[in-house]
Amino acid sequence: MKDNFKYELGLINGKVYQDGNFVAVDVYVKDQVIAEIVPQGTILPCKEIFSCTNKLILPGFIDSHVHINLELGEFKSADDYESASKAAAFGGITTFIDFLEPINKIEEFDYKLKKKQDEAKKSYIDYAFHTTVGNFDDDVEELIRISQENGIPTIKLFTTYSESNRKISDDKLREFLKNSNKTNTLILAHVENDEMILNANVEDTITAYESSRPAKAEIVEIEKITGMAAASGGKLYIVHVTCGSSVELVKDKYGELLGKSIFIESCPQYFHLTKDVFQQENGNLFLLAPPLRSSEEQEKLKENISFINTIGTDHCPFTKEEKMRYKEASKIPKGLGSLEFSFSLMYHLFGKEIIDKFTINPAKIHELFPKKGVIQVSSDADFVIFDSSKTLFIDSGHSRSDYSPYENMITNGLIESVILRGEFVVRNRKLQDVKRGMFIKRN
Ligand SMILES: [Zn+2]
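Above: inputs. Below: predicted complex with zinc ion.
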């Protein structure tokens, strides 16, 4: 039976984030989308009124870089869709984008997509996928077509990892970039110079790990790939940039393309941790690729925050036991968990300047806009209710990993409630046990 209320949910008396400002309006939801935005003062007929006095109302966050159920030799990352999406929800994330396993032939596409779609059914939040290629040896245009047809306008590739046959050849890389613009496909690239890594010749330990994939390997390769993108008019998104010098290089050489056809993503770990942690006794716990950098590079990264378009997490946690199992850096599974604390960590450093990098920017860059990333009529009713006067104490969190790299930190601001398409996923810090996450086709 249908009830008589015109709206299902009304968020009233909050400060609503719109176009970079906080506005005193009330937001009403019907049929999972934002139906009405009105000046504060008049209450519309509504099934539930949720008062947000003194709270910020932000668009639901988007994390466009997560790894769920990632298989790495003898290891599998700790989170499946249930635990990852739970951690994400507590972190205010209402949409995340995972990666299909790398494919080298087009025939692999269908079952790799099907596999992810099956896994993702347990998600509390909305999800999408990036197609991933390894040492791709097939028809580039055809892969782009099939990927687009399945609602995936983004393709990830690697300039390194030749030892596991994931490095793309220069010819294919050029072809992907060349075809990206006319097909409106974004090329996501993990950018490190493969040869410099293969020839690094440092001992296989945690303490020497950073020099095995040095900052220079990122900077040199970013110079090369941004040059290729600029020459071909390609659409390029550089994932997990670790160095401030890398951002400066792109800004200085291709500033006019930055934010238009070339995009930079970085991750909270590169702002909060430095390579010094690899010298600690528990240095294994912080191992990831590309590595954490020097405090100088980290400072430069912070100085250049306004040139970084999005914050993704590269979420890929393992358990303590798995991280500590070997002494050789090469044998340890690389990756950290950051999903749950990503926004809090970045808001703590930068305040409201960081909001767009979790909302409208990733929405526009990854073709989720205007469905996601913005509080306006007809957009999905995804919200984060944030109390900037409170603090968050970071513990191991809701991930299945038994630790967080940020444990015992206290950050400014607290994510109190999270709403996905008009229904609470987290309500006053309590998980609502309804898994309504769905696959978002992006085109
Ligand atoms: Zn990644």
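Residues 13 and 41 are 8 Å apart (CA to CA).
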